[in-house]
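re: ur question from yesterday

yeah so i grabbed the chain u mentioned. its 386 aa long if i counted rite. heres the sequnce exactly as i have it in my notes:
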Amino acid sequence: GAPPQGEWGMSALTVACASRLLRSAAGLRSPIEHARANPVARALGLSPSDGEAAFSSTSGHEGEGDGSSECARKRPGDDGLPIVYHPAYSKPVMPEGHRFPMPVFREIYRRLLRDGVAVPGKNLFQPARMPSLEELTAVHDEEYVNKFMMGAMSDDDLRRMGLPWTEDLVERTLSEVSGTMLCADLALTCGLAVNTAGGTHHAHRSHASGYCIFNDLAVTAKRVIARGVVERVLIVDLDVHQGDGTASTTAADPGIYTLSVHCEDNFPAKKSTSSRDVALPTGTEDDVYIKTTEAALRESIEEHGPQLVLYDAGVDVHGADDLGGFNLTDEGLIRREALVLDTCVGRGIPVAAVVGGGYDKDLEALARRHCILHHVAREIFESNKL
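ran it thru and got these structure tokens back, copy pasting raw so excuse formatting
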């Protein structure tokens, strides 16, 4: 059962949401259809589909819908929490025994289908285009971008990247950035949206690092500011590893504030300087983690006044994670997601969430941890009538 409410220090909505999810083993119930309370900023098209590779929708950052009258009447969020997925997320095939769990993103998608959280033709969105060179080079050095795209990376580059270069990896990398860009567009339209990949926070301006190639969080933050959609973005990074690449690539932009709550004795060995860094010791458990994160989040919001939050919900904080260091439980993950989403949405701040890191040879267990984010997000979305 859920812990006593008095121990949580959260709002009634957070407590109710987390308690309900705990009682129902992470919320395996059908979506509730509801009318949106307020008009959306602009419409994005929907194209119904029946399969993983077939469904498609406009990205909201380029292109139009299919023009049908049915699609014209639909708005993102009318059929539930917007969820972003691209089949290329798990397209690269890793060498046997590789530590990066490439298939997990497909497993997340399949689990969300089984649970009824994601419904093709309803609340699933796929990017309609890849990021432009201009969007990528707002964060990354053009020479580095071209070297990766053409497979001209040195042995040292590949070692830092941690992944074998293939054309499929190029497609996956671009799709992941575009997916987070789309997720932000949907969040600005609907109030809340969730990707099924993303969180490449170790990618630096001129080199890859720790399985991260192009920094989707930094690219997305700079893009929405450059377009004049918002002036201030808060990147909340709760992966167990510090978001060093995000911090370094956005440090000169006063519109972007980075909060990183991470394990002090974990990768990367050399940390960058975020707007706010909170380093916790190895072995940190649920209560200390939640209390510390709540304070850091509220202080960051008060200091920066964000108009959009990009949330990296890494589950490598879990006690069973192969590359972690903290000792959070499933319940702790539920409490964390409820805390972040309720705090931001409750203040009227749109949230685009990505899954972040997570490492476990048991892909089913890992996908289940990641999907806690989507289940809690659906509860928050419906509770707030977004």
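noticed a couple things. Strands lie at 46-47, 56-57, 83-84, 124-125, 192-195, 233-237, 256-263, 276-280, 308-312, 351-354. also Confidence is low (pLDDT under 50) at residues 1-12, 22-71.
anyway ttyl
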